[in-house]
Amino acid sequence: MSPVNGLHHVTAISSSAQGNVDFFGKHLGLRLVKKTVNFDDPGTYHLYFADEVGTPGSVLTFFPWAGVPSGRAGTGEAGLTQFAVPRGTLDFWKARLEAAAAAPVIDETVFEERRLRSQDPDGFAFALVESDDGRPGWASNGIGADAAVKGFRGVTLTLAETDATKALLTGLMGYSETERDGNLTRLVSPDAAAGVVDLLHAPDQRPAGQGAGRVHHIAFRVADRQEQAAVRETLMAEGFQVTPQIDRNYFFAIYFRSPDGVLFEVATDEPGFATDEPVATLGEALKLPDQHEHLRPLLEKRLPELVV
């Protein structure tokens, strides 16, 4: 099958749509590239933050369910989302995160990469990793192009057992093991900017519980529906229960569970986020899937107005 090309997006649960805009838009400097609704729960926003155009590998999305209880960290989840930032900018980012009253900002080195680890107000755990990443990022809100977040570096999966997920990623999805340090194993997708998946072996932790601050699923990247169909066919031949290809307006998606319980998606680069609004005004207007367009008058009254 055609191997995946690193990450496409990460989707998490939050308790406040405006809180997402304030933290990830204003403090982290990501661009709100799409303001739409949850396909299965249209009374809830689905917000997409990314670089200027929503390049796959830079897209962080949220289901902001107001009042949802906090989730519980544990096994069977993506416990840490890693972003790439330019080398020499961590002092800038540490001061910025501390000024934003983020959770404690921890300076650490993992696999010889210096990074800052912190959390948003909901407890969503992230790291800013120094990298030679050549992607342009999005300069805004006092963050220059020389410091802007480039996109994802990768994710860390917290697992009770790691062997089966490692076999899936290396045997079927094109990843290779590059390093190991104690209970942490690094897998890398060749030639992918957002290509890191770290496996954290944590057999003594309890299972994660979904809620605010937890990652709902991670999506891997393929070019188009033909490559996605090949991935689906191979996964199903190996016994995985995989959904049909689903049209998500800005990409096509298939979903399945990893052997250790993490919800995986494989998403296409096509057609992208500028299909229903120009790049210059991405994220400004509420965009609805066709099946929910008849609800627009109701949704425009129900959904909270966002100050971007």
Automatic annotation (TrEMBL):
Organism: Amorphus orientalis
InterPro entries given in the database record: Extradiol_RC_dioxygenase, Glyas_Bleomycin-R_OHBP_Dase, Glyas_Fos-R_dOase_dom, VOC_core
Protein name: Glyoxalase family protein
Domain VOC: 6-131, 151-269
Gene3D superfamilies xrefs: 2,3-Dihydroxybiphenyl 1,2-Dioxygenase, domain 1
Cited SUPFAM superfamilies: Glyoxalase/Bleomycin resistance protein/Dihydroxybiphenyl dioxygenase
